[in-house]
Design a protein that fits this description.
Number of helices: 22
Radius of gyration: 28 Å
Number of strands: 0
Shape: elongated
Distance between the termini: 117 Å
Structural class: mainly alpha
Largest sheet: none
Length: 374
């Protein structure tokens, strides 16, 4: 009789199911874990632990709406549970509902100001909302609370990069790599920043490491292709763009930049085909129209070239190279006034690193103006 009573009590003890569910959760048996947590909840509908663990498991299987429902129940039962607000924020974040995530993270930090992961996730949330300075402040706080937080270093680096603070970004990505040397994304992010600094060889080394860790990383091939192209290694760039397109065949920017590489080695028909494919995939990609226009110009198809440069400028009036390339084609067509205006617009918007083109445009403006006064 005693054995029978003991078994009966265990079957009706929700904590038995919760402990079994936690074991299944750790083993990755998420369906079984959800069933066990549900049994615990059925036995005691006011047991917050049942809802919390089931919510965590729902999040593991990407059923974020069910997770939010469970975490909301935990908060109803225990309004001071910081972890429930944090997990609900994480689910909202995964759904792209960043304002709701931010509200929950604010509440988490009010309840527990030492919750390092909450600062990290709020940093990611501010990042998504474009509040880069606020994101950096939160990542810095997360690092203060947990100096080994590689995600916080990585997140802060991404935001420094977004603000053009490239040296600070490199320092943070380097710290993230030291804390977690097996994370391909940290090498990838540092590689992208090295490209912005013109350090193409260092970028290539980082993308190589990222690909050693994650051989099917399409963006690492894409950005390494960019680094090779920018340093003039066009055939290596083409190899990387080809590999990137095997892994993500609908990526317009890869077609666009492969088109630039083809143009650089005089393969204008292949370039036109790539730019055209890029436009099919993204009709608002101004750089693809500008690139195709340049390839048309090299083939002597100046009317088509000017049409493409005009379309690029309709999409993005600050596509500075389109003004320059349009001016070159207008000159070929004898359209000196149109060329003059295009060169002037180019100089107005061109960044300083295009100094050679700026100087040439200034020279041509002077010569065109003199020609008009004769």
């Amino acid at each position: 009789m005693a054995i029978f009573k003991r078994k009966f009590m265990e079957i009706n003890d929700p904590w038995v199911y919760i402990n079994q569910g936690i074991a299944k959760l750790k083993q990755g048996e998420f369906g079984s874990a959800i069933e066990l947590f549900s049994k615990a909840i059925n036995l005691n509908p006011r047991l917050a632990s049942g809802y919390k663990n089931r919510g965590i498991t729902y999040a593991k299987v990407k059923d974020y709406k069910s997770a939010i429902t469970d975490f909301s129940k935990v908060i109803e039962l225990n309004p001071s549970d910081a972890t429930a607000y944090f997990h609900r924020a994480s689910a909202y974040f995964s759904l792209g509902e960043f304002d709701q995530a931010l509200r929950d993270l604010n509440r988490t930090i009010v309840i527990d100001p030492q919750y390092a992961d909450a600062y990290t996730l709020r940093g990611f949330t501010y990042d998504k909302l474009g509040a880069f300075d606020s994101a950096i402040a939160d990542y810095t706080k997360a690092i203060e609370l947990n100096p080994d937080n590689a995600d916080a270093y990585s997140g802060r680096g991404i935001n420094h990069d977004a603000l053009g603070e490239y040296a600070l970004a490199i320092a943070d990505f380097t710290q993230a790599i030291e804390k977690n040397p097996n994370n391909a994304h940290n090498y990838f992010n540092r590689g992208r920043t090295y490209i912005m600094l013109g350090e193409y060889d260092l970028a290539i080394l980082d993308f190589l490491k990222a690909l050693e860790l994650h051989p099917q990383y399409p963006y690492a091939y894409y950005y390494r292709g960019n680094a090779y192209r920018l340093k003039g290694a066009y055939y290596k760039a083409l190899e990387d763009y080809n590999r990137a397109l095997e892994l993500m065949p609908y990526h317009a920017l890869t077609y666009c930049n492969r088109g630039h590489a083809h143009t650089a080695i005089g393969e204008f028909d292949q370039a036109i085909a790539d730019f055209t494919k890029a436009i099919e995939l993204n009709a608002q990609l101004a750089d693809a129209y500008d690139g195709r226009g340049t390839a048309y110009r090299h083939k002597g198809l100046y009317v088509l070239a000017i049409a493409d440069h005009n379309r690029a400028l309709e999409i993005n009036s600050h596509c500075v190279t389109a003004y320059y390339h349009k001016a070159l084609s207008c000159e070929k067509m004898g359209q000196r006034i149109e060329a003059l205006f295009a060169y002037q617009a180019f100089i107005q918007f061109a960044p300083e690193y295009l100094i050679d083109q700026i100087n040439y445009a200034k020279q041509r403006i002077t010569e065109l103006q003199q020609a008009e006064t004769l």
